[in-house]
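3.2 Worked example (two chains)
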Amino acid sequence: MKFIFEVRIREGHTAEEYADAWVRASELIQQAPGARGTELHRKIGDPDTLIAIASWESKAQRDAMEGQHNPEIAEIIRSAAPFVDITPIGEFEDPEWVVMPPGRKED
């Protein structure tokens, strides 16, 4: 499953500042059972808007990780909160089908 959210960088800050916190928190979160990785993408034409994607084997595993309070992760997230606005887009199941160009393999 994918947990997707939009990140807007507040004026006076940079996407790189948020990316630093994102990587530090992700390194810890990705140790949880079922974690499959994270991605951070800049919006084309708007470098202060990002889309963040966290991949998990299942929603239950992601929820279990969220239920385990980790003060180090909480502090990293708190440290980034003053310079971003985060809007959850949603939680999505893995695709039921993938259409790839001929000769290409799915990642």
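3.2.1 Second chain
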Amino acid sequence: MIHSRPKPSTFIALGLIVLVQIFGLVYILNHFATKRSFGLPIYLSGTAILTLVIVLLLVKMMAAYKFIAIGKDQIITRLPLRGKTTTYSLSEVMVWEEENVITNKREFKQLTIVFEDKSSFSISNHEHLNYEEFVKSLNKKLPKKKITAGKKS
């Protein structure tokens, strides 16, 4: 069975960015409470922007925390934050597509699988482990359900 899970390095990098922004937010709030050397609009806009970015990054991290496995004629998807695990047989896969995007001389790949119950599951080569093995397995087991997409740049 081939398992694809989020790369720890992705979560560590995003976590560090969130921590730096939280420290920045605490600094701004502390500066407002103690010194107030800037105008109120500066504090309000800085606090609002930092809070919004922190929330968006946390939502991105939670949405990316998902697992998928393929083996023995079935695909198992797991979304731990929702407490949801679903098992699909390979015959329940309607289509799957691998999209390639070239940006700044780097190639990003994203795999999307659509199931008969109209749910879909996406993973990317930069955020998930065992991406290439997963695509090879799909090419081997479900070649007729692949949608071919061109390269974008």
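3.3 Remarks
The first strand starts at residue 2 and ends at 4.
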